């Protein structure tokens, strides 16, 4: 599109008052849509944690009515299964690989729960020359080598196949254990299995380590009940995931639909008392655009000086006394200013406005931070912050952060003094500290809370905590006008 075509393009122009109503309504709706999408984005991680919790509960006896005190007896893999491996035929021999033949599986295939196909096939000559063993359907495979998360993964053969030396094949003796139960036990111990790897730049497992690996081994009837219970809960998680994905796809279509509706004039009510758009056009036509001065030489850009923000390290909570981070009874705009400065100091550089608002609201409303933390960390947080971090009774409503006048006054003051440097727009807009912010005192509860919260956000990301917060808080975090 040329400049001329662009300038001659006609667009709908409602009255100015209606433009304001449309913009305000769009801000509200798009913020809610973003909040909805954030919650959908967090569901896969939550379901992953749920599945892992199910596996751990199954092996800890939570699904057994007659759980043995101290847990079920343990057995090494070699005592309940035959364990073997494979090899890689010479690539230089054209008679060893073909487009059809016996499937040959590598460790990369263990990313699938059940392996139903192979990408490579070996011939009878390769099987004979390298003494490859054909493992039957139902054999479990454990990846011994592999980059990233591959090592330690468990899969089940859905076809008869040979394997390479990067896999361990486990054929369970079903008179001693159920294949499905052993598979669940190995999946639950994925991280423990990975820790057994040895080596330099790329640690690997070996056959003896897999053979000696121990798993709990309850009676066969208990194994059967555990497998059924786990499969039922996994099926529930699969259904939730499918529905969430379908809903997420629909939610992602909402923004363009809302924008289209807005510019068709269908989003807000029209008011006949508004000044007609034709009058606005006449006023615009009568105003001559100011001509820009021609500059000589190299153009100069004015940059705002930033305050060098040293990284604040989260203190060792064990050495601090109870109530060390208790805030004053009345948190005014000066206290909020100190808190926001402490957050940006702890971050150590320009920070996304969304993340800064999230960190600030968690510091100012420590109850919400405590609700998102694991039990042990939540107890430390409550000890240091004091009663303000204790949960409220269910019938008590929390203060809506977006209506807090102290927050707005703090932002207005920082902007007016140049303590807050704002860059960019939309979701990528950032906040940083201006040079004058170095004079604001942040010692005490602001730095303590900010250091803790920022360290948590760096480690887990905003996505880990947003789904656990109330809708009004999430809307405040995403509000561009906040």
Quick recap:
The chain is an alpha+beta fold. The chain contains 17 helices and 14 strands.
Q: Which structural category fits the helices and strands?
A: alpha+beta
What is the helix content? 40-55%
Q: What sort of overall outline do the alpha carbons produce when their principal axes are compared?
A: extended
Number of strands: 14
**Rounded to an integer, what's the Rg over CA atoms?**
31 Å
| Measured distance between first and last alpha carbons | 36 Å
- Widest beta sheet: strand line-up: 2-10-7-8-5
Residue fraction in strands:
5-15%
What is the count of helical runs? 17
Query: Which stretches of 5+ consecutive residues score pLDDT under 50?
Result: 309-314, 397-403
Largest sheet descriptor: 5 strands, mixed
Mean pLDDT: 84
Structure, explained:
The protein is of the alpha+beta class and 482 residues long. 45% of the residues lie in helices and 10% in strands. The strands form 4 sheets. It has a 5-stranded mixed β-sheet with strand order 2-10-7-8-5. It has a 4-stranded mixed β-sheet with strand order 3-6-4-9. A 3-stranded antiparallel β-sheet has the order 12-14-13. Strand 13 and strand 14 form a beta hairpin. Helix 2 (16-59) packs across helix 17, helix 11 (333-347) crosses helix 16 and helix 12 crosses helix 17. The longest helix is centred in the N-terminal third of the chain and has 44 residues, at 16-59.
């Amino acid at each position: 599109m040329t400049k001329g075509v662009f300038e001659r393009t006609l667009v709908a122009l409602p009255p100015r008052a209606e433009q304001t109503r449309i913009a305000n309504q769009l801000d509200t709706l798009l913020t809610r849509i973003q909040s909805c999408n954030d919650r959908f984005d967090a569901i896969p991680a939550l379901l992953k944690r749920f599945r892992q919790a199910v596996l751990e509960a199954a092996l800890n006896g939570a699904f057994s009515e007659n759980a043995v005190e101290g847990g079920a007896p343990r057995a090494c893999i070699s005592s309940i299964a035959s364990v073997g491996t494979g090899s890689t035929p010479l690539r230089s021999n054209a008679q060893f690989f073909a487009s059809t033949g016996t499937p040959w599986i590598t460790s990369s295939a263990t990313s699938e729960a059940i392996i139903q196909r192979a990408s490579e096939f070996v011939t009878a000559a390769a099987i004979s020359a390298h003494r490859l063993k054909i493992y039957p359907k139902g054999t479990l495979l454990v990846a011994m080598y592999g980059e990233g998360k591959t090592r330690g993964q468990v899969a089940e053969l859905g076809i008869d196949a040979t394997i390479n030396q990067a896999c361990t094949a486990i054929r369970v003796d079903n008179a001693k254990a159920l294949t499905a139960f052993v598979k669940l036990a190995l999946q639950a111990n994925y991280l423990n299995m990975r820790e057994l790897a040895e080596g330099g730049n790329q640690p690997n497992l070996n056959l003896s380590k897999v053979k000696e690996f121990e798993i709990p081994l309850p009676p066969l009837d208990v194994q059967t009940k555990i497998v059924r219970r786990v499969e039922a809960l996994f099926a529930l998680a699969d259904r939730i995931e499918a529905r969430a994905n379908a809903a997420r796809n629909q939610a992602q279509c909402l923004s363009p639909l809302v924008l289209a509706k807005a510019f068709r004039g269908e989003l807000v009510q029209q008011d006949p008392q508004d000044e007609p758009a034709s009058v606005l056009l006449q006023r615009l036509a009568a105003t001559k655009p100011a001509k820009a001065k021609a500059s000589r030489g190299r153009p100069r850009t004015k940059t705002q000086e930033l305050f060098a923000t040293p990284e604040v390290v989260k203190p060792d909570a064990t050495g601090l006394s109870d109530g060390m981070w208790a805030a004053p009874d009345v948190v005014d705009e000066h206290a909020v200013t100190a808190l926001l400065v402490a957050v940006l100091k702890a971050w150590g550089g320009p920070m996304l406005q969304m993340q800064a608002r999230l960190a600030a609201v968690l510091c100012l409303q420590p109850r919400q931070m405590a609700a998102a933390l694991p039990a042990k960390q939540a107890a430390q947080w409550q000890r240091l912050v004091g009663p303000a971090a204790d949960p409220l009774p269910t019938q008590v409503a929390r203060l809506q952060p977006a209506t807090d006048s102290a927050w707005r006054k703090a932002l207005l003051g920082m902007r007016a003094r140049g303590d807050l440097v704002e860059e960019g727009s939309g979701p990528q807009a950032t906040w940083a500290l201006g040079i004058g912010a170095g004079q604001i005192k942040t010692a005490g509860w602001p730095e303590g809370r900010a250091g803790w919260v920022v360290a948590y956000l760096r480690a887990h990301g905003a996505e880990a905590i947003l789904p656990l917060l109330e809708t009004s808080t999430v809307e405040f975090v995403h509000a561009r006008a906040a």
